[in-house]
Predict the structure.
Amino acid sequence: MEVFLQTLVAGILKGGLYSLIGIGMTLIMGVMGIINLAHGQLMMVAMYITFALSSFFGIDPYISLLVSMPSLFILGMAIQKYIMNPLMEVDSILPENQVLMTVGIGMVLTEIARFIFSSNYKSVQTSYSNATFFLGAISFSVALVIAFFIAIGFTVLMFWFLLKTDIGRSIRATAQDRDAALLMGVNSKKITIITFGIGSSLVAAAGTLLIPIYYLFPDIGGPFTRKAFVITILGGLGSTVGAIFGGITLGLAESFGATYIGMAYDDMIGLIIFILVLLFIPGGFKRFTKI
Amino acid sequence: MTKRRSVKCLIFGFAFFLAGLLLVSCGKKSDTIKIGIILPLTGDLAKFGEIEKNSFMMALEEINALGAVHGKKLELVIEDTQGKPEIARSALEKLVTQDKVVMIGGGYSSSETYAAVSVAQKQKVPFLVNTGAADNITEQGYEYIFRLNPPVSEYPSSLESFLKESAKDVKTAVILFENSLFGQSGSKEFEAQATKWGLKVLLKEGYAKGAIDFKPLLTKVREKNPDLIYMISYYMDASLLIRQSMELNINPKLFVGGAAGFTLPEFLKNSGKATEYVYSATLWTPTVPYKGAKEYYDKYLNKFKEPTEYHGAEAYAAMYVIADAIKRAKTPAPADIREALTKTDMMTVFGPVKFISYGKMTQQNKLPTFLVQWQNGQLETVWPKDVATKKYIYPIPPWNARK
């Protein structure tokens, strides 16, 4: 029982972070209609920003959210405005050349990070990095719990933003039908730029929240891009609620798999679920929700 | 019309470019002897690849400063493997067929090395492996493959005498390993040996590297309550494993790392006080009783402003072994160099090097290993006793009894 509960807790806490990573990707997916394969690399950039702030200025990782999120917001907007949007206007052999572009952006970001920070593994040690509290026999990592609640906070905020604000409505309109939105007077170019910014800053938050408990190096982005991809497919492309369920599902699947099947098969379990979802609920969890 | 012209231009341009490349490579060919090195310079093992590359280059400079070999200087052609077996194979093919190297060195992870050695054997180019540790690399009977470092099954050989003489009350063990060729090979061998020493292996489990949360796995370990936890992990996983063991309050009598990640300075940086008292098997420390070991460490620190570790020493020593073999070879051709390698008998900073066959292994160098322990933020050699820099602390105090 103790093992079961510990596994459950570990899965949900990790799932919270995964959701945050997934929402960023799914937003971009919804509006742009492409998978952003530089998503994990953008997260890596945010992690390095957090690391630099902490090691040079002694700024706490949670406070550096205030820097890393706006920086990535601007970086994301710049990428969309100056790299992705011009590409949309060019006729090319492959209609997916924007996806290829994101792969390229990811590589460039990785190598820039390697150039500045070298390949060394870095980490930020805080007073709460190893802090835990126990409920019964179940241990909770303080940093993961904080990260989980901040992630939930951002998710709720995101919902409020999408449902209640003007820009949020425009984003949803563009995601539903780009041409119709354009006809209704939505400036879709502006919306794609803002969406890419928001998506980037959400994944930046996830990266910064991971820093106290994880480590970083230039190539850390790849695995997280893959995770984000799986989450997005699980949740249904473009669905925010779906991404939350996708994230939690992946977190739970990984941790239950680790306990009852073997931790060596971590990635395999995630991908098996991925295939099962594609086979039996194509379209992902989005089918059960409206948003 | 214009389109066709531009295509023509492109083709011409490309042809000129190729011709230029050919000229450049021809010009270079005559005055150096080329040695191919494969290392992971990007990807998640890049850090270790970098340490090895620096050490190779450092040794090369020293060797070339001593004078020419067969009237020529030595040159290293370094190819990136990204830590991936398939890229290691094609990198090696490229080195042999295009760069015409006379010998291969390097090879970091077991998986990539294992993939690469079969290509070297097929191409009949000698390959001196200096890091890839899975046992089966030298168990294929390949006559062109030599290995400088001990196989992973021998990493814990120092642990055996330590358990027999000092930690006699260790009866049970848990083995955790990274699910790679290196981890699988190491854990299988360790299980067999531990059983031979009279230990009971309660749990043996692998994990996929790069995991964020090891708690489900560690909760299982806590339930077993073993005397000894043996971990075969790279640095990043190593520090998360040890930190989360502290969080879960797992208290074995001994935490032992199987080399790789547990001896790096970054392990201390990332794990902080959780590193204290952790043991690790290691192949080399700056305090080993080999001539030049400490000098190598100091030189590296001076030049690159960061400490090196056993992987670097392996690379540094390998470069000297390679140079020695080429010097003794009748002509600098692969077959002659292979011949010379079989007669290698020299001392390096990594220990004595002589390629022998024993058990299932062929052309394998046999070396003793050491046991180190983190004490007060320093990596101290604690076993065997005659080379110890500090006395070992056993059993390690439980987490909540520490400051």
Remarks:
- The mean pLDDT of chain A is 87.
- Chain A has one domain: 2-288.
- Chain A touches chain B at residues 2-3, 6-7, 10, 13-14, 111, 114, 118-121, 123, 125, 129-130, 132, 139, 141, 144, 210, 213-215, 217-220, 223, 255-256, 258-259, 262-267 (CB under 8 Å).
